[in-house]
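#onboarding

Welcome to the new folks! Below is a worked example of what a typical request in this channel looks like: someone posts a single protein sequence, and someone else replies with the predicted structure as tokens. Don't worry about understanding the tokens yet, we'll cover that in week two.

Example request:
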Amino acid sequence: MTSIIILSDSAFETASRIKQVTGGSIEGLATRCSRADTTFDDTRTHMQTRFRAGEPVIAVMAAGAIIRLLAPLLADKQKEPPVLAVAEDGSSVVPLLGGHHGANDLAEQVAAGLVAHAAITTAGDLRFGIALDNPPEGWTLANPENAKNVMAALLSGDEVRLQGRYINGARWLMESRLPLDDDGECVISTSETVRDHAPLELVYYPRRHVLGVGCERGAEPSEVIGLVKQALADHSLPPACIAAVASIDLKADEVAIHAVAEHLGVPAIFFDAARLEQETPRLANPSDVVFAEVGCHGVAEGAALAATGDDGLLVQQKKKSKRATVAIARAQEILDMNDIGKARGKLFVVGIGPGQEGWRSPEVTRMIGASTDLVGYTLYLDLIAPVSEGKVRHDFDLGKEEDRVRHAMELAGEGKDVALVCSGDAGIYAMATLVFELLADGGLSDQARRIGIEVSPGISALQAAAARAGAPLGHDFCTISLSDLLTPWESIKMRVKAAAEGDFVIAFYNPVSKRRRTQLAHAREVLLNHRPADTPVILATNLGREGELVRVVPLSELKVDDVDMLTVVIVGSSDTKTVKTGDGKTWVYTPRGYSAKEGTGINT
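Example response:
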């Protein structure tokens, strides 16, 4: 996701125009920006975090300031994301970093939207209209280490000759301003064969081959990767010529297939049995055994052919190892894998914290940015609206938890990347557990059972409440939900009694509702039998959101009417104390005994 960074409200209008062109999020310095989508407290930390995450950064600020902020991180230009500096009035756009990784193109895009000047300074782009070390999608430079010398020679006046049987398909070369000559000292070649190259030669591989893979359930990745290497070596075919790994959808969750795709750095795509069966007339080795097993006469050959289209040719017939098969097909043109087959869908189960952007982890923000669809309770989706523009929202009411999770998993089963959005931490009284319950209990489609799942932690309400009040969780603690919708009241009573007897600090979730007015009162009375009446109790409401209120009251004065469903209640142990600072604020803490421990080297 693109981060558009501003340091004052005066840059907001320019940032808004940039956002219309690029999407992304306007992120502003909290002390000086009131109109940004999200805010941050420290510019250096925020910008370096975005840079480390590999996200494009467009900063509406002075170029020199950006350079100083990011200078400590500059090490490998091959891995740097695009970084643009934009004048506050929108008159100039300067790509500072990542020029050959999208920054120049992004600068041109932003400049067009602002009707501004893109200050492209990369010599090759300026003179020849091309970045030789950054070929377009579908092409791979085999020897990037030669790019610098070749470009230097061309800038010094040398000419270049184009060669290779696939050169006519390289329109980006033919349409550039390169100084072409059949006798040029420099050479640009297109090839689909592993070979040596001259010092002033660049070799580009077109990605128009697809590797079809079939394997037994649980096959070792090393076996399948070894078989793939053999097949490629048999044809002297560079791995960079492979556009995708393809298989049957029954294998969408097969570890070995995804290991092959990761090894080659390409997507894994899948077809259903009916689609693969359509390729039977073109198979070199149709198998009735395979048909009886999975519903088509060939997986490896069929998937490779299906992915390369009606004009695709089988260049490597089915090759076997003990538990796997591979085949290779070649398309007539460069392949765009975005609309071919179906990728394995992903479910990101994310906890966005109590609500404010500063309490949301960079990993969660990345997952939201990588998603096509967002599923969640409407309030939670509203809280991340500034960083979810362009995503398809699927809003659910409270009380529809199973419907919410099932819908998210089925969407992922269709090949979409879905963020299931929870408040706090997704695994604490939230939806992560239900995801795995549904996997265990059944009732999902086969496709939904094969999705990829990633769970990301978030700051829980009890952590946020504790931080606002001090350090009440400094020693042993537990959490108890007082809602009896899913847990019998007798079980809740037993847990409250046990926690009271164990002298735990207790964080109560779901303390009251409109119809539940007695559970918290019961818990208070039980606790008063086991700890002092003046035990500190923290009442934290609307944490991280408008209307936030944090209060500290003695246990004996805890009133049900002071609490609602948006309040977390933390009751201290018999050791929990309070201390008042010079500004009049009362802090709550539970000592662990550090001050009484002699010596050094305390393990925390």
